[in-house]
What we know:
By secondary structure, this protein is of the alpha/beta class. The chain has seven helices and six strands, in the order E-H-H-E-H-E-H-H-H-E-H-E-E. The chain has helices at about 20-25, 35-50, 65-75, 100-105, 110-115, 130-145, 160-170, and strands spanning about 10-15, 55-60, 80-85, 155-160, 190-195, 205-210. Strands 3-2-4-1-5-6 form a six-stranded mixed beta sheet, sandwiched between helices. Helix 6 (about 130-145) packs across helix 7. The radius of gyration is 17 Å and the shape is globular. The protein starts with 8 loop residues before the first strand and ends in a 12-residue tail after the last strand.
Amino acid sequence: MVSRHAGVRTLILLRHGQTEWNATDRMQGQIDTDLTELGRRQAKEAARELVSRNAIAIHSSDLRRAFDTATALAEHTGLTVVPDVRLRETNLGDWEGLTHLEVDADYPGARMAWRLDARYTPPNGESKLEVGARSLPVVQELLAERQDWPGRTIILVAHGGLIAALTAALLDLPPQNWPILGGLANTSWVQLSSHGPSIEQPGWRLDVWNAAAKVAPDVL
């Protein structure tokens, strides 16, 4: 008997483990920070959970916090991590390196405006819409290239802001609805599935959000 899921492509978007900057509410953006010891343990725990998902590929942001998280997963699956610069976190421009309180002091009201408007661009940074636009081709290329994807799983390891933007882009949400996708805990993941009739009509559905079953405050 053929499983009703045989033709479904599953996509898991995994957020990296904790960094010291996460723990201190500092805006990382594309600054290349390292996992804490807790973050490395989180990565191993996530790997043990996801190893059963029948993954055929792991692609990751090239920033260390994501790539090291992906490497922990690869060690359990025997797959090779493919780095992709398009999966980097949002470029936060002049906000990078500042704490939340420092951004709020220097740019009153700006962080809230950024959260509520996918078009809002931090000074010298990029908007959520731009993040979605640069990451969406990663998935579109995998749809075209991976003929073995139906019935199996591909995992992308990235960052909270990028995962929210990519999810919104895959679901083709109108920009005013992008803020409904909130923060992700470290090493939480999102699961989407493609049920469409063709690569041109992938029919993405959101199956799971923040799958670690924890509601975390936004950190970016």
